[in-house]
Amino acid sequence: MTRRLLLWAGIVLLGLIAFTAALQAIGDLALAASRSSDPVARTGLLLTVIFIAAVASLVVVAAGVASSSPRGESLAIWVGLASVVAVRVLVAILLDAPVDRDMRYYDEAAAGFLRGECCFASRPVGYPLLLAGAYGLIGRGALAGEALNIGAALLGAAVLAAVVRRSFGGPAAAVTVALYAVWPAGALMTSARMTETVYTTQLLLAVGAAVVGGVGARWGLITGAILALSQYVRSLSVALLPVFVFARLLRRPRPWPLVMLGVVALVVGFLLVLGPVIWHNLRAHGEPSVGTSSYGGLSVWQGSDQESGGRFSWETWTAYPHLSAGDLWEDGKVAARLGWQRIVEDPGAFLALQLRKFPFTWGSEDYGLLFAVGAQAPPEPRHTFPRLAGQLFYAAVTLGAFLTLLSRRRLPIDLLTLLAIGVTATTAAIHVLLEARERYHMYVVPLLMAVAAVGVTHGIAVVQDVREKRRDRRRALSAG
């Protein structure tokens, strides 16, 4: 019963996401069509048509090759992994992302680590530490950040392929990796020295450990440790811990003591790896917290702001460091109270605000373009192709994931799908309260690709089976 409720919750949520993505795609298409007299925009439209046709062909070919034989299955996946690298290397060569406020912070923090400055700061330290390692090997600059992102993308794709292959078979894995390789927004983020690509891979590693591992304590420790490491990169991973706990409890019937031991190990692994954070927060702030950022309160404050639509606001950002007589940690407490005060004073307005926040967080796939070339709204004609191709791709993936769940609603729900639903639902729930941004859904997209790939491969198999039966009938009629 619980699994069934979760499945229907996932169907409703993915339906809403697909609907908002489709509306955004229709709006982008209408804008591009209105500019069709502009040769640059017209070229962008043509390139988008070619791209969508190429992706559709790639998916069919990947599924066909993977279905042909075990060797074909391996070949399709390896070619997909090579394509992940090739596409991102091409993006790194062609684009030089402008360094914005966040990228400047990560660059300076990484350089500080190289100078021996350590360790905890007002933001999670994981990504600057990784970037510092890349700087140490390659040198400070864009190339090091691109190399880090390409390596992370390749690792994420490999883990995704292994998990999907185990859960749904080789053809679905090949299709998933093919989609991951040509994912426009994911590829465009290669040039951005931001946390998103690394964090997406960390989450895929945690999902992989949960799916591939058993319910025992060893894999519980490993999964908890991986999830904790991602908390060092983005401070919201603690909210995903219940998803992994719940997924373990809902696995196929096993001895209950073994299941509970695995759950305890998961939590222990999470807390052990975050031990330094807990100790630092206890000494610096007097709180045994796993929080790795001092900006959580700011996100609540901005997420409840009617004027900004629950989005980032320079006004609140500028006021934030002056909310208390203490440090940013104390400012965060004041900001959180101010945010909750808005919610309590006018809950109706806060609920209405979600009608603006949800489409902004889940409907648009513009973050890759925003960070790769610094594009702003309304987009310029020269951005027609990357904007439209990325949005149509995302709309197709979300729609595919929704239709896959809907078509499989009477089948037992597998662990990977359960985790995909859980992570998506938790992310959506978090951003009811927190600030809305397009890039905050990026790490969910590969999981939706995996779900969509199941439906795509099943649909291709059905079409091929129908064609084979028609051929058999024609042969029989010809022989008769």
Number of helices: 21
Radius of gyration from CA coordinates: 23 Å
Helix-residue proportion: over 70%
Mean pLDDT: 91
How many strands?
0
Span between termini? 53 Å
What percentage of amino acids are in beta strands? under 5%
* Overall geometry: globular
Poorly predicted spans: none
Give me the strand/helix succession.
HHHHHHHHHHHHHHHHHHHHH
Q: Give the number of domains.
A: 1
Sheet of most strands: none
Secondary-structure-derived class: mainly alpha
Q: How would the blueprint of this fold be written?
A:
Layout: H1 2-34, H2 39-68, H3 70-94, H4 101-114, H5 126-138, H6 142-168, H7 170-182, H8 184-188, H9 196-212, H10 217-231, H11 241-249, H12 256-273, H13 275-285, H14 296-303, H15 314-319, H16 328-345, H17 347-363, H18 367-373, H19 384-407, H20 415-433, H21 445-479
Helix pairs in contact: 1-17, 1-19, 1-20, 2-3, 2-7, 2-19, 3-6, 3-7, 4-5, 5-6, 6-7, 6-9, 7-21, 9-10, 10-12, 11-12, 14-16, 16-17, 19-21
Give a quick rundown of the structure.
The chain has one domain (2-215, 346-479). The protein is built from 21 helices and no strands.
